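Q: Hi! First time doing this. I have a protein sequence and I read that you can turn it into a structure. Is that right? Here it is:
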Amino acid sequence: MKKKNEEVKSEFLFEKKNYVIMLVGLAFIGLGFILMAGGGSDNPEIFNADIYNFRRIRLAPTLVIIGLGIEIYAIMTKPKK
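A: Yes, that's right. Below is the predicted 3D structure, encoded as structure tokens:
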């Protein structure tokens, strides 16, 4: 049992390094989704071939997958004790 005088010290699960890496991963994911956006047409009768360009088909999904890999790395990195 803990005494009333003892202070409960709360610790974060991760260190600052982990959180910085997580923010970088979120930035990659966010940038990927931003690059995927757009390309629609105001008139549904007109086909816009820009939805199949390199940026939306290759670059953006690759950035999202890289961001997810960075997030996994940030979670799995062991904090120094």
